[in-house]
Amino acid sequence: MSQLNAHLTAAWLSDFAASVAVNADLLTELDRQIGDADHGSNMNRGMQAVAALSADDFADAASHVKKAGMTLVNTVGGASGPLYGTFMLRFAGALGDDGELTTEALGAALRAGLQGILDRGKASVGDKTMVDALTPAVEAFEAASGQGVQAALTAAAQAAASGRDSTIPLVARKGRASYLGERSAGHQDPGATSVTLLIESAARTLG
Ligand code: ADP
Ligand code: MG
Predict the structure, then answer these.
(1) Closest C-alpha to ligand 1, atom 3
(2) Looking at residue 77, what is its pLDDT?
(3) What is the mean pLDDT of the chain?
(4) Which atom of ligand 1 is nearest to the CA of 123?
(5) What is the DSSP letter of 160?
(6) Residues flanking ligand 1, CB < 6 Å
(7) What average pLDDT does the segment 1-22 reach?
(8) Half-sphere CA count of 6, side-chain side, radius 13 A
(9) Pairwise CA distance, residues 4 & 98, whole Å
(10) Which residues lie below 8 Å from residue 133, measured CB to CB, with a gap of 6+?
(11) Which residue, judged by its Cα, is nearest atom 21 of ligand 1?
């Protein structure tokens, strides 16, 4: 059973930062195909700044993730900066106090983070955005929550990857890719790709 504290959330977000760094060229290439070729560099800049935060400077996990959200808003830019920032801020707001990490607390935080992205970006499932990976991930987490944190996160990561893959044939209806209309079909959404890395990192570190 994981103990929730700033060191645990720092382990998660540092793992995500490393994953973004490894995949930065892929994220940028995907964004080159249907956007402006900056998603990898945007996310890498933001997550390196988040990874540079020291867990020792935070009283609890919620204040660490809140600072991560503010850091992303201030450093990532583009569409994804405010969206990832809002995810982290809402996640932090719903996470609750440090202590034993329960599926209830983590599920509530993931659900609140997703709702923040929906409120801010106004995308629905099928619009070819990060929402297409994050929505099934949160639903899978909730469906598997009776099996414990690790099993629920493993299910969430698998669902995120399926949702990411489901963006390939879609025509984009939100964000920069929507400017391409039908020509956006046949390409994997960059934001759905990066948010899958976020959930895969959670499955490696929070369980
Ligand atoms: P920008 O499009 O401003 O260059 P990025 O390239 O960093 O920003 O991020 C692009 C990603 O942001 C897209 O692949 C998509 O997943 C996500 N995105 C864009 N607009 C929205 C929206 N309204 N709601 C949810 N996600 C969105
Ligand atoms: Mg872009």
Answers:
(1) 78
(2) 87
(3) 97
(4) 24
(5) H
(6) 31, 35-36, 38-39, 42, 78-80, 83, 117, 121-123, 129-131, 174-176, 189-192
(7) 96
(8) 17
(9) 5
(10) 160, 161, 163, 164, 167, 189, 192, 193, 195, 196, 199
(11) 175
